[in-house]
Amino acid sequence: MNKQKRQAVIAGNWKMNKTPAETTALINEIKPLVANADCGVVVCVPFVDLHAALDAAKGSNVKVGAQNCHFEKSGAFTGEISADMLKEMGVEYVIIGHSERRTYFGETDVTVNKRTLAALNSGLKVILCVGEYLEQREQGVTAELVSMQTKIALMGVTAEQLKNVIIAYEPVWAIGTGKTATAEQANEVNAVIRATVAELYGADVAETVTVQYGGSMKASNADELLAQPDVDGGLIGGASLVAEDFAAIVKAASK
Ligand code: PGA
Fold first, then answer.
1. Which long-range contacts (CB under 8 A, 24 or more apart) does 239-242 make?
2. What parts of the chain have a pLDDT lower than 50?
3. What is the pLDDT of residue 178?
4. Which of 70, 92, 98, 100 is catalytic?
5. Domains along the chain with CATH numbers
6. Active site residue 100
7. Atom nearest to 95 CA in ligand 1
8. What is the pLDDT of residues 115-152, one digit of tens each?
9. Which of 95, 107, 124, 138 has its CA 20 to 30 A from that of 67?
10. Are 119 and 96 in contact (CB under 8 A)?
């Protein structure tokens, strides 16, 4: 596998944190700290913060993403946001299938696939999340499960569209718990994801796909995780809410 063939991307997942004014302040803090980054830098903010984020990030290397989108183009879906709405605002990325959406909001592999297709068809870049629960890891089905999640999510996605997909491996037991997968565990599952992409699209395409790790990644463990051959960046929750902590991870990915 050849890490040079793909871009490392560090994406912050702010979850349900920060008001618009706080968003402006945090991005203004982040910008100078990551200005020399040699990796992609993305912040995925709540819908109502997108305007503020886009304004604050303008002219910098910080890209803006949302945390979900609906799969229909428009219609009677009270409370939902379409991919076209995000695209027209200037949003570049959207997280799809985060485990919190799967656990608390009824997201399934099938709806993840529909949202992925809708986002890609609207011209958004997708950060597609997959990962196992602790019981599934203990039962030894992590590889099968993550491979299945990846395959279903990518149904109908063309090789051309796959260029706009980042896959994030996020073991659910490591999210927000302070428990990080070991670098070896992260690499092992990221390699399974890449092998699954190879099965679907061929080895050449698989070598170019950015596969992130997420789950309690922070400044103190980023170096080791990001040094793994199949870990091409990170999806960062808690540590993305503190400018210095986020910037330290960006720095680790820029080495
Ligand atoms: P965490 O969250 O870094 O706080 O564990 C990661 C995520 O949910 O994307």
1. 240/11, 240/12, 240/13, 240/14, 240/43, 241/12, 241/14, 241/17, 241/18, 241/26
2. 1
3. 86
4. 98
5. 9-253 (3.20.20.70)
6. no
7. 9
8. 999 999 999 999 999 999 999 999 999 999 999 999 99
9. 138
10. yes
